[in-house]
Specification:
Blueprint lengths: L1 H14 L1 H14 L23 E4 L3 H17 L5 E5 L2 H7 L8 E4 L5 H11 L3 E5 L5 H9 L4 E6 L3 H9 L1 H9 L3 E4 L2 H10 L4 E3 L11 H12 L4 E8 L3 H14 L6 H9 L3 E7 L5 H10 L4 E3 L12 E3 L6 H7 L2 E4 L12 H5 L4 E3 L7 H9 L4 E2 L3 H13 L1 H17 L3 H13 L1
Parallel strand pairs: 1-2, 1-4, 2-3, 4-5, 5-6, 6-7, 8-9, 8-12, 9-11, 10-11, 12-13, 13-14
Helix pairs in contact: 1-8, 3-4, 3-19, 5-6, 6-8, 7-8, 7-9, 10-14, 12-17
């Protein structure tokens, strides 16, 4: 059954290659990086054949930031290591540029056809492969296993929804999970689910993202902008499709109520200051779309890319830059967590708490379940049932400095108690190499 499923899968991935070309061309119209080095997607490389790489695959932005934390420890333990870094998205590749040192390489993740995966492994002959978090590809795992490349699934997580999908496709997924020499799970719940999916050597080592080290220059920039801005900034952080419309509707809803004040007026009565609203979309291809949405609602928009030494006055500030979340969190007084107000699993709340920005989460946080649940229990974050409730809670926090400080102190304690995964996971990788 497994052999038949893999044969069908390989036929399908081979047949879909022309569609992948078309999809990349469409995405390149908005994000030009998708149109560059396309041959790498199919296992063809300009670089000469080589060997001895420590290969890290970080598909997108969040995984690349987690990889940066692990890489810092790996370089300390493996001096002189050669890094081969692969990505699947433009945001991941752009962020990954910051991690490269002399002698390192960065290429696209190969499309998961049998031929492309085998060409990738044969071309670079990695010493070890480290896949970040969730990216388990049957042909790539099989190619590495056939070539004797030890594979590690680092900072691994698997939510209940993904487990159900893996079990439905177990003829494909079980051999892929079983091919990893070591799986370094974030939590015990993740470990239990990964074992059910077919993984073998599973160790619980915590979440790398707790070991975050924020860019001090970005934090300084955020504080500088704050000095020249209204003192209270409410941010919808890493927003996903549908959430910006909810946010704008909630603002309009408050303004139209007859028996209650708007969120802005509620704070103004207590503090004599207005709220400055800010939206930072998760995906760069949506920046212009979100601007249009705000303008259609009759709101003036100022984009981050237009700022020089100071912010520009507007109803909505639009964060249209990559790699500056530490700056945005340092500028904001309260953040509504994107991805959690639509059923999308939420975004990472750890960076916000590390920057000292109080976080309000919506109901959907299954992608970061343990982090969000423990933060809520520790008093380091607040959960609300919907966007309107989130805006009301944000107004309450903005009006009460002591509540915000209580959240900040609880967040610092929660973060400190959860750190240490980077050293443990780097140790596990180094042990396999030695």
């Amino acid at each position: 059954m497994q052999a038949f499923a893999l044969s069908v899968y390989r036929l399908l991935t081979w047949a879909l290659q022309p569609l992948i070309h078309l999809r990349l061309a469409r995405r390149a119209a908005k994000e030009p990086l998708y149109g560059q080095w396309i041959e790498e997607r199919f296992g063809e490389y300009a670089q000469p054949r080589s060997s001895g790489w420590v290969w890290i695959h970080a598909v997108s932005l969040g995984e690349t930031r987690a990889a940066a934390i692990l890489l810092r420890e790996l370089r300390a333990q493996l001096p002189g290591m050669k890094l081969l870094l692969t990505h699947g998205t433009a945001t991941g590749r752009e962020e990954g540029l910051k991690l490269l040192q002399t002698g390192d390489l960065q290429v696209w993740q190969p499309w998961d056809s049998k031929e492309a995966a085998q060409r990738f492994i044969a071309h670079f002959k990695p010493r070890i492969g480290i896949v970040m978090e969730t990216e388990v590809w049957p042909n790539l795992c099989a190619a590495a296993q056939s070539a004797g490349v030890p594979m590690v699934l680092a900072n691994a997580r698997l939510n209940a929804r993904s487990l159900r999908k893996a079990l439905r496709l177990s003829a494909l997924s079980r051999p892929a999970y079983a091919s990893f020499h070591r799986v370094l799970a974030q939590t015990q719940d993740d470990a239990d689910r990964l074992l059910l999916a077919g993984a073998k050597d599973v160790l619980v080592m915590g979440n790398l993202k707790f070991d975050i080290s924020l860019d001090l220059s970005l934090q300084s920039t955020g504080q500088k902008f704050k000095q020249n801005s209204p003192p209270l900034v409410l941010m919808l952080a890493s927003s996903r499709e549908g959430e910006e419309a909810q946010f704008l509707e909630a603002i309009r809803g408050f303004a139209g109520l007859q028996t209650a004040q708007s969120a802005t007026e509620l704070v103004a009565n207590k503090m004599s200051v207005p709220i400055q609203y800010m939206i930072v979309p998760r995906h760069p291809q949506r920046f212009s779309e979100v601007q249009q949405l705000c303008e259609q609602a009759g709101l003036r928009v100022s984009r981050r890319s237009q700022w020089q030494d100071r912010t520009e006055p507007a109803d909505i500030w639009l964060g249209d830059s990559l790699g500056e979340m530490a700056m945005y969190y340092s500028l904001a007084d309260v953040a509504l967590l994107g991805g959690s107000f639509e059923p999308l699993g939420g975004q990472n709340l750890i960076e916000a708490i590390a920057a000292g920005c109080p976080v309000i989460m919506g109901p959907h946080t299954y992608n970061f379940q343990e982090a969000s649940d423990t933060a809520e229990m520790a008093g380091a974050a607040v959960r609300v049932p919907d966007m309107a409730s989130g805006l009301l809670k944000a107004a309450e926090l903005l009006a009460d400095t002591s509540q915000r400080q209580t959240l900040q102190l609880a967040g610092a304690k929660w973060l400190s108690a959860s750190q240490g995964a980077a050293t443990q996971q780097a140790n596990a990788v180094a042990q396999l190499l030695h």
